[in-house]
Please model this.
Amino acid sequence: MDLDEFLREDHKQYLRQVRILVWVVLLVGAFSGLFVSRHTLALDSLWGICRAVGFALAGVLSTVLIAHSLVLVVSELAAWWTTIGLMGIPPLHQCRRNWRLTTQSREYPRSKRWLYPAASVCCVAAAIAFHSWLLWLVATVALCFLFHLNSQLARPPFALVLASSSRQALTLQAVIRRFAMNLRTVSLLEMENNSEPFDQMRTLVPYTLRTRNDAHWRELAHGLMRFVPVIVLDTRGASPLVIEEIDYLLHDDLLYKTVFVVDDCDGSAGTSNRLVDQAGPVADRLKGVPLEMLCLEKAGNMPTLIQAVTAARVCIPSSQKPLSWIADCARRILVPQAKADGGESRDDPPDDPGSKADEETGAS
Model:
């Protein structure tokens, strides 16, 4: 199964789950409205029946709004719980910086900066002025929606995808985003002129932080590379900018948290215990990179990046692993796989003295 087919099947499964949830919400809302109307309205006339139908529709609307608000709040709280468990509590200035970076991206319409807060304030003001339970319900939903939006904007990213803007890079980011679950995945890719169905689903918070001014690209890329815990660099069809990003990773000692997606044709794929000795700008720069950091993609198969994800080589949770596994995985796995000096890495967790004592006792 290739990436496109995998994403389409995953999207179909998501639509089936949404369809089931919609039917459940509609049935619960209709029955609740009819139950209320049965005890408060007389159904012996046409007007009473019409009012009962209106109560049923109001019950459906209320249930949908309440369910939507709960889903937004709970999903965002779960995302923050996962992010804090992995990266710690981010400082306030870092959250504000994340918010500004996202709102300045070209995929984020400028009207959203004031439209959603203004609409929420109007809903709350109307609810206070008219004392209507329906307006209070709408105001609550608007506030939950505003919390969900700004919380996503301020949440620090977990993985950064660096690649040349192409269809295969967007597909790779979509797959990583699928496996990242509650963790935020960002890139600097160009999202225009893309017609894939799984990328047409625009969200409130864009997945690309590419700004409207391309002159800010280098500063933004370097800042994100130093901050995020995981960097996924796609070297297939590497442009001069991607080669510059590789040079920055090598110069700034960021290899310990980088995974390279390579291809046979660029000469950087691994054979046995050494790299293929082949000419090329990418191959020349990756000759000293450990094989564990190279993910080879073969045509028609799932890339080994996904195998690395499920095998806990990269700290991204899958459906087979609980979210509590993330924090321990980050400390054990996001370290250099091959240590030249044979010593401990700067990011290695301290050894448990109790386990060493148990091993010595068992050996004796």
Observations:
- The first strand starts at residue 159 and ends at 162.
- The CA atoms of residues 255 and 289 lie 8 Å apart.
